[in-house]
Amino acid sequence: MIAVSIADSPIEWASSAAVTAVQRVRKFLDDVGDQSRSVWYRNGSLHRPCEGVFEEMAREDPARLISMLADDRLMPTDLTFAAEIAGGIADSALVRPALLRLLGHPSPFVREGAIYGISRHMTEEVVQRLRELASIDPSPGVRAAAEDVVAGQ
Fold first, then answer.
1. Mind listing the pLDDT tens digit for each residue in 54-89?
2. Model pTM score
3. Contacts of 87 (CB under 8 A, 6+ apart)
4. CB–CB of 38/74 below 8 Å?
5. Which residues have a Cβ under 8 Å from the Cβ of 126 and sit 6 or more positions away?
6. Which residues contact 38 (CB under 8 A, 6 or more apart)?
7. Terminal C-alpha separation, the chain
8. Is the distance from CB of 6 to CB of 21 less than 8 angstroms?
9. What is the three-class DSSP state of 114?
10. Dihedral, 13, 19, 24, 29 alpha carbons, nearest 10
């Protein structure tokens, strides 16, 4: 009789199986496409985006939250909340470019979230861009938000 050893111990086998499972989940999420684009693996479990997760990321891993704003993985509704919450990150040099980019997003909800987020990171460039939005944006909600932020300066 020939004995075949998969691992030296049950712990090594379990660890190997867990790594394989995580790799399979990540591959599944990559392969599924749009339905799972807003799901990610973090700290041993799958997460769906929500305000609480974005707030935690703003505190603990602000660069990751900012990268999520740019990588086009979030649905517009989630991106709206993420943009507004990202405005609470103290590092304007990190936050401002990402939110300025979102001021041109196709979704008016995302543009409005970006307005509220960027309102804490004002520069002359931001004021100019908000004045532009206040006068030419097709969405009345975006125009009103931009006007309110500029008026509060």
1. 999 999 999 999 999 988 778 899 999 999 999 999
2. 0.71
3. 95, 99, 116, 117, 118, 119, 120, 121
4. yes
5. 96, 100, 118
6. 48, 49, 73, 74, 75, 78
7. 82
8. no
9. helix
10. 160
**Residue with tokens 């990171």, as numbered in its chain:** 121
pLDDT exceeds 50 at position 12: yes
Kindly list the domain boundaries of the chain, sorted by start residue.
12-29+40-151
Residue 133: partners with Cβ closer than 8 Å, 6 or more residues away: 103, 111, 115, 142, 143, 146
Place of tokens 């479990």: 45
Place of tokens 């041993």: 44
Residue type, 54: F
Note the pLDDT tens digit of each residue in 98-147: 999 999 999 999 999 999 999 999 999 999 999 999 999 999 999 999 99
